[in-house]
Structures are given as C-alpha cells and as structure tokens.
Amino acid sequence: MGARLKSSDLTELVALAALWGASFLFMRMGAAEFGPVALAAVRVIGAALFLLPLLAARRQLASLTEHWRALLLLGLLNSALPFLCFSYAALSITAGLSSIFNAAAPLFGAVIAWAWLQDRLTPSRLAGLAIGFAGVLWLAWDKASFKPGGSGWAIVACLAATLCYGISACYTKKRFTGVPPLAVATGSQLSASLLLVGPALVWWPSAMPSGTAWMAAGLLALACTGVAYVLYFRLIASVGPANAIAVTFLIPVFAVVWGWMFLGEGITPQMVVGCAVILGGTALTTGLLKLPSRGAAAA
What we know:
Layout: H1 7-34, H2 36-57, H3 62-66, H4 68-89, H5 95-102, H6 105-116, H7 123-143, H8 152-175, H9 181-202, H10 211-239, H11 241-244, H12 247-263, H13 269-286, H14 294-298
C-alpha cells in the first residue's frame, strides 16, 4: 500500500492531473499549424531543456551516459511515439476523447506485465481488464470512421500511444529499478529529442506558426511535460506509485473541461459512459477497487 495522502499531496495530484489534462488542449491548439511531427519535437526538446539543469543541480548527469542505450529505447516508447500519435489524433478528435483513450494505458500495462514480467492476474484484475477493454472497444466503435475526414485513424493512433505507454511502464520497471527517477525522465526526453529533431526538420511547417500556436507548444513542453514530470516523481516518492496512479482518473475530467472552456468542445453521453466504463475497469485492474472475496460474500 502507498503512504496516506496529505493535503499537500492531494494538491499536487490535482495540479498534475490539470497539467496532463491541459496537454490534450494544447495539442489541439498547436497540431494544425505545427503538424504532428514538429509539435512532438518542440514538446520533447523544450522539456529536455527544462529538466537537464535540474538533473545537473542534483549531480546525476552521469546516469545519462551510463544508461544511454536503455534511455534511447525508453525515449522512443514513452515520449517520441506516443506524443507523435496524440499530436496526430489532435488534428481530428477532441481533447476530451483523446484523454479518455489515454486512460486505458494501465489496461495495456497490466496485460504486458502479465505476459512479460509474470505479474499475477487476480479475478478482480481480470474483471477490470474485461470491463476496461469493453469500454474502449465500445467507444472506439461508436466514434471511429475510416471514411475521408473520419476519426478512425486518430483513434488507432491514440490506442497505439497507450500501448506504447504500457510497454514503457513495464520496461521502466524491468530496466530502471534503482536509477534516479529524474534521470529517467530527463533521459527519455533527451532521447526523444534526438529521435525527433531530424524528422521535425524534414516536416517543419512551411508557414511560421502563429503566436498562439507557439504559446501552446511552449506550455505543452514546459508545464505539461517538464513541470508535470517533476510533480509526478515527487508524488511517487511521497505517496508511492499505487496512490500516484490515481492521477489517471482525473486527467479526462480536466481535459474535457479545458476543451469545453477554451475550444467549445461538446461532451456527449457516449463519451461520459465510455469514460466511466474504462475508468471502472482501470480501477479494478490497478487495485484501487477490488471485487469482494468469496469469504466476504458468504459472510
């Protein structure tokens, strides 16, 4: 069990959810002018420039060279590919819908941990996986259209991003145990920057993005990635990963609210129901909720 949440921890948890929820808003604001590749590159480069001085201040830069091969793969799986996928999805689907699919990442993580790390799947976790993936399929089936102008490929991109997050979470657990968390965060952003800078130069927009688009990209890099990583690892250190994962349940709430407030995005009953089903399954899968045991049911 993780440590008990204090009021300051709860404040940081809500702030982190607000920042990560806002990332979907800023991707919507910047993707059309930057394009997915350039926006993802600006995001990781800005985050790396923010995190590197913090890592240097802690005298942990040596961790980057010591683990550079593993960090290169982590940067690909945990930042470059998923940021690119979500930036592509932002071209055609709402911030709220993208964030709801993002909430399925723990479901993919649980399946991969079972297959790769031999994590045990209890009846509660199995039920959670079934419920969560049913919600994902129902929502995707309702929203996906592969006709010209449809959202089908955007939804595929969201699910590919969450799969990458699931793989990277298991890879981090297997490969980076004992490595300073800030070094892992910084190294992943630096690696993603190296991977994306070339493609970004090739696909850099022909017209200079507007000031609004640059503001969105800057906030995405510094606040939603750099500051958010610092908050996230502070929470893991103070309350443990089991409590820190609760941020997953708040991100769609903020993303939907931000999209509604600043972009006038609608909230449909299908989105609300789909989100509730996915988050219910995620709660069972991560252990935040548990089915009653046979003994408790008999009593």
